Amino acid sequence: MGNIVSDQVFNVELYNAHREDTITISSITDLLGTGISIVGVPVVPFNLAPRENVTAVVTVSTLGSLNIDATYTFHQSTGETYVIYITGSRIVLLPMRPEAPLREHLIWETKILTSVDGDEQRIANRDVPRGEFEFVIKDGTRQAEMILFDRQSKLVAVPAWHEPSFLTSVGSINDLVINVDETRYGNFYAGGYVIVFQDMYTFDAIQIDSLTTTTITLVSGLTKAFASNVQVMPLMSAWIEATTSIAKAVYNDQTTSLKIKVLATDRDIADASAFSTYNSKAFLDDPNYLPNKQLQEALRTKIYVLDNSTGDHSQFSLWQRAVRNSGKGFKTNSRQELWELRQLLHFLKGQQVSFYMPTFAKDLVPNTTLLSGNSTLTMDHIGYVVNADDRWPKQVFRVHLTDGTILTRTIQSSSEISTSEEQLTVDTVWPYNIEPEDIERIEFLTKVRFATDDIVITHNNAIGWAECVVPTIEVMDDDA
User: Fold this and answer.
1) Cβ neighbours around 360 below 10 Å, total
2) How many CB atoms lie within 10 A of CB 85?
3) What is the three-class DSSP state of 13?
4) 277, 194 in Cβ contact below 8 A?
5) Domain 3-90, CATH 3.40.50.1820 — does that match?
6) Cα distances (Å, whole numbers) of residue 184 to 188, 294, 358
7) How far is it, in rounded angstroms, from Cα 100 to Cα 103?
């Protein structure tokens, strides 16, 4: 049976494969135990004619011991036996609704091999991330403590509170098809489990047979009736961390902090199609969300130091330039935006896959009009010619105009006009005169990867309001 979180029903068959001989079942030994039943077997003794069969229905409910190890034995009059073995595990549901916010970790495993000049070879040890959740419960803490008392070291089932759908019509007992508002923005899939959740005492956890964008067909029918607009969520199997923190107030109040590790599935949802592209890679040019209104950055290089503490100090680097540590922040305001972010994170695989990102800063400030039909940009002297020398990532920039227009240009050459001015020549002429005051900012493009394999999404509610801020680092395999 594997791990079950809902009642399971299936057929078994006892078949007489003899062509001529009738067999007689003289007795049955029933060692099924609590929560398991078999119906449809004739009263013993009974005969099976040649090539005749008996079909019975086996029901395994969620009630009973955690480990399922049952047998149902048919004894033939000749002394031979035929045994049905039923094995598996029951998973207890942890149905307590968490308090906001709920923190989700998507954890990859990337092996990074770095050469002396800074180039990298990145190897993904996981195609799909491991999941961890941190959350606090205040309601149902006594029930949670009872579950933890016995099951803290065992698998539990946890609703995916962060990606619910909702019933669009009532669900009746024995319904095999339920109508929901949307299945695309949650981890619903054939063979997975779904929970219809009204409250911690009224729910159904059933396996999914098939689905469309607005319907879910179940393997077995609903056992309870549900009103419209009740939550419908994917169901996750998880381990609870060895230590659970409980904070008790002076009188009749308790807060339980849980951390769970979700069993990974082989279902990969990687997709970056909702985001822009540049040079055949994902280009994250959406607004950079800064929860603290400030972006912490750093420039670093690998330096070799020669110093015996008595003579002159000397140092050098084999890197051609410094690299920037920065960050990319996301803020979602709907279930669709949250799902698209999740697909992007699966696509980038933590530190594995590089992508493009603007600096979101005023990197260049022209001091004269960008003339129509001309391909130059004149600006105050910032040391571009001497230091950047037309090298990536100080080579491709985007001009954001105040009317929302964005113009992308690649620097072909640069020169010093005077001690106070420099001039850049770009690959494409300006389409019309652009005054400096019509420019909101000019930002460089850079090629980066995430600088961590542990990416945290903070869910503020169950309808897609979430935040995610990930550190980034420039990669050196970007000269183009």
Assistant:
1) 17
2) 9
3) strand
4) no
5) no
6) 8, 34, 30
7) 9
Q: How far apart are CA 456 and CA 32, in angstroms?
A: 45
The vertex-191 CA angle with 9 and 352, nearest 5°, equals: 155
Q: What share of the chain is helix, strand, coil (3-state, %, to 5)?
A: 5, 50, 45
> Could you give the 3-state DSSP secondary structure of residue 82?
strand
The DSSP code sequence of 207-241 is: EEEEE-SSEEEESS--SS-B-TT-EEEEEEEEEEP
Quickly list DSSP for 309-371: SSS--EEE-SSSS-EEEEEEEEEEESHHHHHHHHHHHHHHTTTTS-EEEE--S----BSS-B-
Domain map (residue ranges) of the chain: 3-90, 102-262, 269-480
Mean pLDDT per block of 10 residues along the chain (480 residues) reads 79 93 95 93 95 94 80 94 89 88 95 90 91 92 85 86 96 96 95 91 89 94 92 92 86 86 84 95 95 89 88 88 94 97 96 95 96 97 94 94 96 95 97 97 96 97 95 79
Both structure tokens of 64: 């009973």
pLDDT at 480: 41
Distance, in Å, from the CA atom of 274 to the CA atom of 260, rounded to the nearest integer, reads 30
Distance CA 171, CA 284 (A): 41
Q: Could you tell me which residues are beta bridge partners of residue 67? A: 89
Instruction: Tell me the whole-structure pTM to 2 decimals.
Output: 0.84
The distance in angstroms from the start CA to the end CA of the chain is 55
Token reading at 200:
């911690």
Concatenated DSSP letters of 89-145: EE-EE--PPPPSPEEEEEE--EEEEE-TTS-EEEEES-SS-EEEEEEEE-TTHHHHH
Q: Which helix (H) or strand (E) holds 147?
A: helix 141-151
- Cβ(31)–Cβ(72) under 8 Å? yes
